[in-house]
Specification:
The complex is a heterodimer. Helices cover about 60% and strands about 0% of the residues of chain A. The radius of gyration of chain A is 11 Å and the shape is globular.
Chain lengths: ~50, ~425
């Protein structure tokens, strides 16, 4: 679990999107409460953009 | 002497349809839970004013029933907001019947002393500073007087200032702490029933005292979230910057209330973000200038309203979210106001929104005006002073239209889809204004 408040969570997700040039699905924003979930989502989006 | 200090806590909604909505809308529920979880800073201050050889017990009671057990005290002090005041009176009556001395105080009692007096052995008007220590001594000596007047100014100065007893809430299940930096507000809005009604002028606590209180709260709770118990924290911009510089090294997260002028000063916003402020609650009241005429004596809010959207963007671009508050049922509001508020919220990117109905709290200028105009729906309606129940005849619509419009608006803005949309908007602002 991220161990941050909801605002920090949004800021982390925004920073991830900006760093990797991706856009996480809006409906996933609520569910991403762990580092693992974010990493998996980023990996999937990058995979999709390559293939 | 064993003294019980009892805070009537919790949020009330009388209208059953709104109450039903309240348990289903996620953002509405979360703010209600936060409000219900805040301790009574007033009673923690009363505790600190109590002579040291007395035993002080702090209690919060969510709801009083005839079966609520009475603890054994020599004297109880009860504080309550207007919506719960009849529950407070009932509890006071039971304690008195059991032979316990009862003292009533707080905002409602200060404004309606003649109503409160029959339920108490003594009432305290205004701040407890300047009244409570003498009251306890009088109680011990068996010479309690029926009425004590506390201070309306100088409450943060020696010899009257005391640090609230944060140690009394060390074991509370909620991790929220409140600290007050000021009492009163110079805007003097007609509807306001907050601390300006018990102060003679704006009272500002010195920065070192505020920092001392935050440190005392940190000593009893691990990483609490602080909520400043102010009505308008940054009235004095010079004080505000000194405060923010002093609070930054403490590494806390916190929330407060301000007027929109906070957005005028980029240095202030940078300091605010660096200090750990997560959200500011701002009373926007109405989505456009037409709705704001006459709300405050100088039409300050009306003059500011044209720059609301720009100001919200500027504050949120610093990573601080804005909780925008709207009051529905102002005299200029007609049934189209609900859609206009919905549209404003969508255009603004406000991360959080608070919508309430105009409420003529007793003894406010709004109450006196509506009473004069014969528009109050009942002579006495304190249990409906919940901010969600309609208690007066609106000018530009019917009571039914106001109630149904409010329900419609709640459904429009407090749903998961809209909350996600607001989160996305916030993220885009954050991305556009930060470097990674």
């Amino acid at each position: 679990v991220l161990g941050v408040d909801s605002l920090q969570g949004l800021q982390i997700l925004a920073a991830v999107e900006k760093r990797f040039g991706i856009r996480l699905p809006d409906e996933e924003l609520i569910r991403m409460r762990t580092i693992g979930a974010i990493v998996a989502a980023v990996a999937q989006l990058r995979q999709e953009s390559v293939s | 002497v064993r003294i019980g200090l009892i805070a009537m806590s919790g949020v009330r909604v009388r209208n059953p349809e709104l109450a039903r909505l309240g348990v289903t809308l996620p953002q509405f529920v979360s703010r209600g839970q936060v409000i219900a979880s805040l301790p009574s800073l007033g009673l923690l201050t009363v505790a600190a004013l109590t002579p040291h050889d007395c035993e002080v017990v702090y209690r919060e009671i969510g709801e009083v029933t005839p079966d609520t057990p009475l603890e054994s005290f020599d004297l109880v002090g009860i504080s309550s907001f207007t919506a719960q005041i009849d529950e407070a009176y009932a509890l006071a009556d039971r304690y008195r019947a059991a032979g316990v001395l009862v003292v009533l105080g707080g905002l409602h009692v200060s404004l309606m002393p003649d109503e409160a007096a029959p339920h108490a052995d003594a009432i305290v008007l205004y701040g407890a500073e300047g009244a409570w220590p003498a009251l306890v001594e009088d109680a011990r000596a068996g010479r309690l007087r029926p009425r004590y007047e506390g201070l309306r100014s100088g409450v943060f100065e020696a010899p009257h200032y005391v640090m609230p007893r944060f140690d009394l809430i060390a074991d509370r299940p909620y991790n929220r702490m409140t600290v007050q930096t000021s009492r009163g507000c110079p805007l003097n809005c007609e509807f306001c029933a907050a601390s300006l009604r018990i102060t003679s002028s704006f009272q500002q606590k010195p920065v070192d005292k505020v920092i001392g209180e935050i440190q005392a709260a940190l000593a009893v709770r691990r990483q609490p979230f602080f909520e400043l118990a102010d009505d308008n924290t940054f009235v004095n911009k010079k004080w505000g910057k000194a405060f923010l510089r002093a609070v930054e090294p403490l590494g806390i997260r916190w929330f407060t209330e301000s007027d929109i002028s906070l957005a005028d000063d980029d240095e202030m916003l940078r300091l605010l973000a660096a200090s750990g402020c997560r959200q500011v609650l701002i009373g926007l009241e109405s989505p456009d200038a037409a709705g704001l005429g006459g709300l405050d004596p100088n039409n300050w809010k009306q003059r500011r309203s044209g720059r609301y959207l720009e100001a919200i963007d500027r504050i949120q671009s610093h990573g601080i979210t804005v909780n925008g508050c709207f009051i529905l049922g102002l005299d200029s509001h007609t049934p189209d106001v609900f859609e206009r508020v919905r549209d404003f919220v969508r255009a603004s990117g406000l991360l959080e929104v608070q919508v309430t109905v105009q409420t003529p709290f007793p003894a406010t200028p709004l109450y006196h005006r509506l009473r004069r105009e014969g528009r109050l729906l009942a002579e006495r309606y304190w249990d409906k002073c919940t901010l969600f129940d309609v208690t007066y005849q609106p000018k530009g619509m019917s009571v039914d239209e106001l109630e149904s419009g409010l329900r419609w608006l709640f459904g429009e803005i407090y749903n998961e889809r809209e909350f996600l949309r607001r989160k996305r908007h916030y993220m885009e602002i954050f991305k556009a204004t930060t470097s990674t």
